[in-house]
Amino acid sequence: MSILKVNDIKKSYGAIRAVDGVSFAVEPGEILGVIGPNGSGKTTLFNSILGQIKPDSGRVEFEGVDISGKSPLELSRLGVGRTFQNLQVFGKLSLRDNLIVAAQEFHGSFWGRMFAPSDNGLGARADEMIELFRLGHVADLPAGSLSYGQQKLVDIAMAFMPAPRLVLLDEPCAGVNPSLVDGLRDLLVQLNQRQGGSFVVIEHNMDFVMKLCHRIVCMVEGRVLAVGRPEEIQSNRAVLEAYLGN
Amino acid sequence: MTDFLQLLISGIATGSIYAMAALGFTLLWQASGTINFAQGEFVMLPAFSMLIAMAMGLPLWAAFVVALIVSVLVLGMAFKRFIVDPMRASGVISIVVATLGLSIGLKSFVKAGYSAEPHPFPSVFGDEVFKLAGVTISYSDVGALLFAGLMVLGLQLFLNKTLTGRAMQAVAQNTFSAEALGINVKRMIFYTFAINAILVTVTALLITPTYLAKFDMGDNIGLKAFFAAIIGGFNNSRGALLGGVIVGVLENLVGAYITPSYKDGVALALFLAVILVKPDGLLGTPAERKV
Amino acid sequence: MTLSKQHLALLTLGLAALAIAPSLLKTYGLYLLTLWLVYIIAALGLNLTVGYAGLKSLCHAGFMGVGAYTVAILMKAGVSFWLATPVAISLCFVLGLLIGFPALRVQLHYLGFATLGFNLLLMLFFRNEEWLTGGTFGIQNIKRPELFGFSFNGNLAFYYLALVITVVSAALLAYLLRSPWGRAFAALRDNPIRAESTGVNITAYTLMSFAIGAAYAGLAGALFAPLVNFIEPAPFGLGMSLLFLMMVVVGGSGKFYGPVLGSAIALLLPEYLRFAKDWYLAIFGFAVVAMMIWLPGGLLSIRERWLLHKAKTASDKTATNAGAV
User: Which CATH architecture has domain B2-277?
Assistant: First the structure.
């Protein structure tokens, strides 16, 4: 069974059809990229999947359950994680606490956590992530005091902390120093192999997407232009035209 | 019935005065995210500047002009420059606490430096009343209503019809895009502070004859302004007028027909009812969630 | 809980000082010291709401009033202090939930206004419902508690009672803050949107932080009534609520000992600034404004700023050496 099924999503703003009947499915363990020129409807699609926007029609299923219109809280409880395009960390909490808070609510009961140990049993897990992301030297600093690139990594690490079965990554490379992009890709590949789960990645950086993703959906003007493995997309005429014609 | 009409008219008059303070409050919030908890004291200060100017022998109109200038300089320019601007980075709570501190400071300053007693204040429209179909109406009520109505409508026209006004609205809606469009955001925000200063000065002129000039007169006005603003719709300038009038009228009616002891609780009850039923206020539009 | 040695030593020292202090003080000094403890309890609760969870609460004195009146009224009716106090605390907790709920439906900003209005409403209630609260005359001759035949009537005995209650309630709060709840509160304060997407139930935590804060105010009120023996509406007005907020912010909001320092300043400053008379509050108000401009983190943030500066410099060095991210 597919992890995520997007079925004929449509969303218009007045006369503009931002998303015009998009369907695709994400398989277990798959990294799916969504690319497309500016204004192709990627963000609207992303927000529809995450329940931030109510699509005019269509259906989004996560593991066979309809998730359209679910709140961020409900989605996180179902096992859907996400990263943010702009920086979204807990500024005054230490980096380590940022990671723990990202997973602590999934262990134990609300009242039980009042009496639980401070790290709610997640200290080792957080250290593992800190190690993987090579953030050890800043682990105890307030996240808000870190550099942009470091905060970006914190944001991504937070999404993976509870080992969600699906993670949506919103432009993970945006604002990241180009020299660090390869490192970020390796990290995501490692995470995918280590803890499984499926990823959906929206990204502008073509090179990054081509090397990271197993399959790519190319959107143009609110529709799916092509779906396929990176090399298929790279050699797809229509895709090239859509990009060059822009 | 005549009682009821009388209460209604004076309620509308008081309410339209609340509306002006509420309007200034909303404008500041929209343009710069400043929640001004000292708005009541911003009404109290011009009242005392007028009082001082009159004590020096100026007629009321001249005192009003002096107060206008002082307000724009102090409550507009200095407030923005020295208090709001430096705090932009440290978040809303800091501004809330700072304006609360300012409110205490200004109140106590006037109390200690001028007087703790209430002072009578002349009405622009005199103390006479007239009768219309058996209803006694005071000139000052009619005057306040007209004056406040004109101010609010004029401001509405300014915001919607003039280039500057529209630029100010653009800044309020989206500072970032406004800047990208080449609007001088800083200046527009300053205009908002200046307009707020003018609004509170006019409010002081109209409300002080009934409230009397006292160091803590702002407590009540400030509170009514907050609630009127939210009841009408925090992101809508016409909402402030509607909210102010509703609060003014209901207060009068509750005070007369139900219980005078809880007159001051009316605004709160109304506020709670409104945010439960229509969270964005009566005329407000839902704010898009920013992610 | 792990406390550093330095922290533990300071804490022991502070508690020892509080235990010895009464022998150095006269009646008025002892009264002030007891009042400080009462303020500390209230301000600790407000710090949870404002400093840790980042909510605007402007009716803390109102809640304290509810606690004080509940205890006074129940004790007048013959109920024991030890029973009346839990009632007062629970009542404030429930009121906190009730007032927080409508505001939360909309925008966190509204919580400030809702609480402001609520304090006003409570004042009207205290003043107008004479049959229950004695109106502006208040309630007089409130007794101090007894336990197993031992009376806390003496000032010294009551001081030690207040001290024990303060220490216990501070410890409970510290326990709560070190649990995962504490981290969830901070997450809520720092970034509610992100918090929700990581599974933090912001509605539940917001309500709890608000209600627990109110309960602490209720406990403070329960001690305040027998301390002063006589209550009337005045000390529970909006002005006092604002003063509580200042205590938290001036000391250092979101720092555990912030309210301890802040309430000492709020209480002692007027004593030392007696010569300034009415000017005192003016100076205080403007000082708060100045502080928000230059030191928004409060007095206790000075040390933290310095430590952060040091740590940053150190980590920058390691980063350069390791050539890492």
Answer: Orthogonal Bundle (1.10)
